[in-house]
């Protein structure tokens, strides 16, 4: 007699997502060593010349006050308004960093550019690089892909993804007590909310039920697989509940530094394989570009400095430190125009840069490039030799599809099934 799925989810509020949490999948073809992935997203469009793509000011190219500096093989811009945060980062961590310049997203629309820089495609139905990485390497983890920021694309791998998003829905699933407002505020309080003892009793009852069903008709075949998945999801739900306090409260997104801390803990404790965080800063600087971008870059690089310090000091489940088997991609969906507008802001621009951090990286180097405005328009992508990563008139532009394909190769995933026909820009992969 086959076990019906509805029999397994009797009393299902206590098991808040068994099908979501427990079923492993066959891994796709891998390229190189699997690496954990953390995506840091600066949503809104940063100005590359403030840090990652240093330029000299000239007619047709507005650059705020600052100094072009070198750290190892990486040249960067130390804008005065960043109070040295960018300089401190590269002086301390250029050994595990690489910069990619001149990535073109071929759009100036936020929704379109976000899809292209995260998925490598123009479709919101396709999974982003975090969802793909988690699905390939760790679909059986409690929460393979943990989205702590506001934006991600799960595509067909939604069952492997947990999202806080802007409304922080996941925390109410982990702890129902956080889903209800206090009495007299909004909806009426429920008559009964399970406490810790109640949760433990429910879990014990569910485990006992699974054991009885296994003894009666779950020893072989499909029934056995379903019950194994059921038991796995019970354990996964228990492990995930331990993180609910760090996820804040319903309707409120958590701060950038708290997202990073939670992501590192979940990666280190093998609750997730990939995570995505969002700075939460207002990068879309159509007014007062220099002030906005300088402040945002200061906060971003202060956070990145703390992040990489932690990666270098946190033990990895695989041995060594997290920095030894983790890849960090710091990206924004677009750049800003070369010149200021009438409101001292900069508008949308299709060329952006990225910062890569971690293991398996040919670090302390710059890849790609953009024009400096000498004889033409500044901040346009230039052709690049995909083998070396150096500008080459006979090369190709670094399209967002090729960039994302290269990131997938970096984390040990064959990009071909996900981005068929795309070039692969991966000179930064060791």
Task: Describe the protein's architecture and organization.
The chain is 32% helix and 16% strand. The strands form four sheets. Strands 1, 4, 5, 6, 7, 8, 11, 12 and 15 form a nine-stranded mixed beta sheet that branches. A two-stranded antiparallel sheet has the order 2-3. It contains eleven helices and 15 strands. It is an alpha/beta fold and 430 residues long. The model is unreliable at 1-30 (pLDDT under 50). The protein folds into two domains: 1-30 and 191-248, no CATH class; 34-166 and 253-410, Alkaline Phosphatase, subunit A. Helix 3 runs parallel beside helix 10 and helix 9 (256-268) packs parallel to helix 10 (289-313). The longest helix has 25 residues, at 289-313. The protein has helices at 5-8, 18-22, 85-93, 110-119, 129-138, 169-174, 196-217, 221-241, 256-268, 289-313, 400-410, and strands spanning 36-41, 66-71, 74-79, 97-104, 145-147, 161-163, 274-278, 326-331, 335-336, 348-349, 351-358, 365-368, 370-372, 378-381, 398-399.
